[in-house]
Amino acid sequence: MPVLGQFADTVATVLLAAAGAWLCNQVAADAGTPLWQGRLAREVTRRWNRNTSVACAVVLGGHIVAARLETGILGFGPALRSRAEQVDVTGLQDPVLLAVQALASGLREEVPLLLLPAAVMAAARRPAWQILMVVCASRVIPHAYLGLPCLASAVFAAVGWWMYRATGRIGPVIVGHMLFKLALMGPVGFPVQLLAPVFAVVLLALTPDIAPRWMTKKSPRNCSTEVEKPV
User: Fold this and answer.
1) Residue 111, number of CB atoms within 10 A of its CB
2) pLDDT of residue 157
3) Is the CB of residue 114 less than 8 Å from the CB of residue 164?
4) Contact by Cβ (8 Å): 171, 121
5) Chain Cα centroid distance, residue 224
6) 131: number of CA atoms within 13 Å, CB side?
7) For 6-20, b where at least 16 C-beta lie within 10 A, e where not — what string?
8) Which of 24, 127, 128, 222 lies deepest, with the highest CB count within 10 Å?
9) Residue 95: which residues within 8 A CB-CB, separation 6 or more?
10) In terms of C-beta density within 10 A (0-12 exposed, 13-18 middle, 19 or more buried), how is residue 73 classed?
11) pLDDT tens digit sequence for 65-98
12) How much is the average pLDDT of 207-216?
């Protein structure tokens, strides 16, 4: 945020993020599970298939559900209740700058708060539930300025981790996050927010590679009861 007179803080943040990414990649590579083979941008954009596209839709739907939860728990505790209050807290008075920061949050949040801790803990052979707890806590804490609604951040953190684990890709999570921010801005925002979660569930049910087992488990009625006769 150099335009706000925070140049030193910006440089320190970038250097810390770069050093953290390099260190985590080295740890994961030593364990035989490197975060990316080449450049991060190449890893985000390459090898998009049905699984990654559905994962992107699921992440978008997860963010929308979390946003609705934030609205639903406003009355249960201290919280920022308007966009103006959030702008005052963050210091982003310029709407253009606020929009740029919102779109950049996909890359700025998903890499350090999801990719790095999940990859390093997986390389350390930590169980899935521990990784999930760390990923959720890492997302809730930076959003604590929102008040009680910050707890809803755990929802899209969990969905993002689930899709990252299912696909082994961080790209769909980043793009889904950015699409959510776009859905909050444009005139098509409300229809997208209404239909995206339903659309994501339908797509997920049709994608057995990344869907949970209970969604793809065949009904006994669909199983053939005929016994093959020996020839």
Assistant:
1) 20
2) 94
3) yes
4) no
5) 40
6) 21
7) eeeeeeeeeeeeeee
8) 24
9) none
10) middle
11) 988 887 777 666 555 555 444 544 455 555 666 6
12) 82
For tokens 């090898």, what's the residue? 47
Length of the chain as a residue count: 231
Under DSSP, is residue 138 helix (H, G, I), strand (E, B) or coil? Answer: helix
CB 143 within 8 A of CB 150: yes
The three-state DSSP-derived secondary structure of 28-74 is HHHCCCCCCCCCHHHHHHCCCCHHHHHHHHHHHHHHHHHHHHHHHCH
Tokens of 9: 């803080």
Cα–Cα separations (whole angstroms), residue 194 to 56, 104, 109:
16, 24, 24
CA–CA separation, 178 vs 106, rounded Å? 5
Q: What percent of the chain is predicted at pLDDT more than 70?
A: 69
Token output for 89: 């807290």
Which amino acid is located at 97 in the chain? L
Reduced 3-state DSSP string for 141-182: HHHHHHEHHHHHHHHHHHHHHHHHHHHCCCHHHHHHHHHHHH
Question: Whole-prediction pTM value?
Answer: 0.74
Question: Which letter does DSSP use for residue 231 in this model?
Answer: -
Q: How far apart are the first and last CA of the chain?
A: 76
- Residue bearing tokens 């339908």: 202
214 or 164, higher pLDDT: 164
